[in-house]
Amino acid sequence: MRKELRHLKRLENELLALGEEAMLLEELDGLVAGVLVCPEMVPPSEWLSVVWGQTADEAAPVFDTADHLNKVLTLVMAHYNDVAKRLFEKPESYAPYFAIDDRNGDVLWELWIEGFEKAVKLRPAAWRPLLDANVETAKAMSGLLTLADVARRDARFSKLEYEALESTAHELIPMAMRADSRGIPPARIF
């Protein structure tokens, strides 16, 4: 566990050093989980630009050197592999990476779901069949999409609904991911 924490701290520091446009660790964790459970393969060449905070049209490098790129890429892919192993080999051990508000102990789940939603947006058509899949998978997918709406403060929710979903989101996300991962092909580990 200590090795994993050191790895996460290094990854977090490297992402922060890339600037405001790059993802935070919690958002990356959601993106990686989404990419992994996406019914259609999303190659790293596609989703890594999202991590760096660049659009496909942007050619400006966010790295000082090729060594710097390789260092950060190695950390990102190690995290990808770790999440893949947990989701597909031991789904019961999967836990999303959420930040905790030091002031009040609140679980900050919104960044994770924002990252997951970015994965969905990479292949929107591929996700639609999950909404019509078996009951457990459809419920999990629908729940994750609802939480993305809650994170964006969608006006369709009453204050009571919003508070109920917000207070349980950090518990609902890992359950939904475990349900989603059971029907997915073998882990995509690079």
Topology:
Elements: H1 2-17, H2 25-37, H3 44-52, H4 66-89, E1 99-100, E2 107-108, H5 110-122, H6 124-131, H7 135-151, H8 159-181
Antiparallel strand pairs: 1-2
Helix pairs in contact: 1-4, 2-4, 2-5, 5-7, 7-8
TL;DR of this structure?
This protein has 190 residues and is an all-alpha fold. The chain is built from 8 helices and 2 strands. The chain has helices at 2-17, 25-37, 44-52, 66-89, 110-122, 124-131, 135-151, 159-181; strands at 99-100, 107-108.
Main attributes?
two-stranded antiparallel sheet, 8 helices, Four Helix Bundle (Hemerythrin (Met), subunit A), globular, mainly alpha, 190 residues
> How many DSSP E strands?
2
Quick one: biggest sheet?
A: 2 strands, antiparallel
- In percent, how helical is the residue content? 55-70%
How much strand content do the residues show? under 5%
Strand order in the sheet with the most strands: 1-2
**How many DSSP H or I helices?**
8
Global mean pLDDT: 87
CATH topology: Four Helix Bundle (Hemerythrin (Met), subunit A)
H/E order of the elements? HHHHEEHHHH
Q: Tell me the count of domains.
A: 1
CATH first level: which class?
A: Mainly Alpha
Low-confidence parts, pLDDT < 50 over ≥5 residues?
Answer: 183-190
Shape from CA axes?
Answer: globular
CATH architect. name:
Up-down Bundle
User: CA-to-CA gap between the ends?
Assistant: 22 Å
Q: Rg to the nearest angstrom?
A: 16 Å
- Helical/strand content category: mainly alpha
Output the CATH homologous superfamily: YgfB uncharacterised protein family PF03695
